[in-house]
Design goal:
single chain; alpha/beta; Rossmann fold; 5-stranded parallel beta sheet; 34% helix; globular; binds N-carbamoyl-L-aspartate
């Protein structure tokens, strides 16, 4: 299995998006197009959710080799609300031998006319690899790949920010926490850089900062105070203990003191700055209870936007008049 990001591979011969493996290489117009389509699926809280029939007759399989609540459920709801049949498979990574058995699963599902594979995996490379082995009409969506990429999360974060700030050119966005292990931070950076934010700042313990060559152009701040000063958007991240061989972090209490988003630290940001978190949250560690549930928090809005974005991505990739949807189903690619 190679570990390419799938940047080029996600396009068909005509250069159109066929899969969504990464936000790398997407143009500003493509990202804006996806966000505008997502907006059409957004409803006010308490209103009935958007529904449609775009995916009627299609089958979506969610294959998650890592635990997930919100991402998996939101893909499931997104597909179902557009009329697709949905199957969910929670897979045990331990039963995987060099990826071989995954491919057997994929071919089995493909033979049952599954059109879309939504994949989450702890190791890099699986989405691109599966995309290379499926039939031409099949679509692959990356729902979280190691620490590298989580494209629909990047889109939902960009959407949440745009709903408040239509003009991104003067925006300061600060990501606080375990950036090193965060696919959320990387995909957010890919989306927001393409949309043209003024500054993207990173703050966290030195051990949890990414390699110097990663997230080129992002500003690394030495302290939380420096990172938050004048920020319009503050995104807190969970410490991804599952991606560390050994604990490289101080205990929860000292971490909270130094890097926690609290009423006190948030006061350094712009008044009314947006507070974001991809979930799952550790209240009292990277974010205080008060801020997580406070008036500046858009965390629930992110969750709601997640369904809208996933509906948009599914509709965009599958609803093309000129795609290969007429191709024989269940055909086994070479
Ligand atoms: C994140 C993920 O899985 O990358 N969660 C999510 O998709 N909403 C972040 C995390 O697990 O901390």
């Amino acid at each position: 299995m190679t570990t390419d990001t799938g940047r080029d591979q996600q396009r068909d011969a005509a250069g159109r998006l066929r899969h969504l493996l990464t936000l790398e290489g997407l143009s500003r117009d493509e990202i804006l197009g996806l966000l505008e389509l997502s907006e059409t699926f957004v409803r006010a809280p308490g209103e009935p959710p958007a529904r449609g029939t775009t995916l009627a007759g299609r089958t979506v399989a969610n294959l998650f080799f890592e635990p997930s609540t919100r991402t998996r459920v939101s893909f499931e709801l997104a597909a179902a609300r557009l009329g697709a049949d949905v199957v969910n498979l929670e897979m045990q990574s331990s039963s995987r031998v060099k990826g071989e058995s995954v491919l057997d699963t994929i071919y089995t599902l493909q033979a049952m006319a599954v059109d879309v594979f939504v994949l989450r995996d702890a190791e890099p490379g699986l989405p691109a690899w599966i995309a290379r082995h499926t039939a031409p009409h099949v679509r692959v969506l990356n729902a979280g790949e190691a620490h590298l990429s989580h494209p629909t999360q990047g889109l939902l974060d960009a959407l949440t920010i745009r709903q408040r700030f239509a003009d991104s050119s003067r925006l300061v966005v600060t990501v606080v926490g375990d950036v090193r292990h965060s696919r959320v931070a990387r995909s957010a950076w890919q989306a927001l850089r393409t949309l043209g934010v003024a500054e993207f700042r990173l703050v966290g313990p030195r051990e949890l900062m990414p390699e110097a060559t990663e997230l080129p152009g992002a500003r690394r701040c030495a302290t939380l105070a420096e990172g938050l000063a004048g920020a319009d958007v503050v995104m807190a991240l969970r410490i991804q203990r599952e991606r560390m061989a050994e604990a490289r972090i101080p205990d929860a209490a000292s971490y909270h003191k130094e890097y926690g988003i609290t009423a006190q630290s948030l006061a350094l940001a712009q008044p009314g700055a947006l507070v974001m978190h991809p979930g799952p949250m550790n209240r009292g560690v990277e974010i205080s209870e008060e801020v997580a549930d406070g008036p500046q928090s858009v965390i629930q809005q992110q969750v709601a936007n997640g369904v809208a974005v996933r509906m948009a991505v599914l509709a965009y990739l599958l609803n093309r008049a000129d795609d290969a949807s007429g191709a024989p189903r269940g055909r086994r690619a070479g």
